[in-house]
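Listing S7. Sequence submitted for prediction.
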Amino acid sequence: MMKYSEYKAAADYLRPYVPKETKCAITLGSGLGALADKIDAKHVIPYGDIPNFPVSTAIGHKGNLIIGTLDGSPVIAMQGRFHYYEGYEMDKVTFHVRVFKLLGIDTLFVSNAAGGLDRSFKVGDLMIIRDHINLLPNPLIGSNIEEFGLRFPDMTRPYDLELRERAKKIAQEQGVKLQEGVYIGWTGPSYETPAECLFLEKIGGNAIGMSTVPEVIVARHAGLKVFGMSVITNESFNSTEGYENDGDDVIKQANAASERMSKLFSALIKSLYA
């Protein structure tokens, strides 16, 4: 288990680089690191330079912490995240979230590439995450670190309602179509079988992915507000003859959607500083 002192060491290293007015952090998933290119970067810090930080090994994850401004708004952005399937324990998968808390961040934006379980979804759709189902180990198992939060945090509304409604209004103004649904966090790294997809659809999932949920649980434990968005990069419900899920195509589709997501995230974050 990570100790409070290890989170503090990482935060102390980063603090001189982070403007005091910064209150938003973004975790960018597979293929979505392109949004970081929109940031006017003041500092680009490889994860390996930060004390106790894990290192990304997943495809499409560059492994840099970007500190700068997005359309004038100060932000910290994770250009790539950590996954349970990489072999990391959950306290490593979620390490950055608690470091953000110590740096004074109060709102976490999470994004991911996800497979569509909802048969009305199309590849390239953006889905606001309304709720989630966790099929990964809970990152709060083990000794509770009281400095971050209560032993039994409430998860009634893991994704902030006000931010979701604000995002819908901004998307309407931008002419961007949004889906909304339930994201299922799945261990991976293998893609789901058709039978598993049918099961996941029946238990209430609209999209499936291999990340995000542990970060959200730790963020809510620490009292951070959360806004989450999935890019639908493949049709997980598709079991037709000859159809296969392909990791390279997932990255391609995520990159194609990143421009629309960047504009929406930028406007939503700017509204928090207004």
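Caption to Listing S7: primary sequence and predicted structure tokens for the chain studied. The longest strand covers residues 225-235. The chain has a mean pLDDT of 91.
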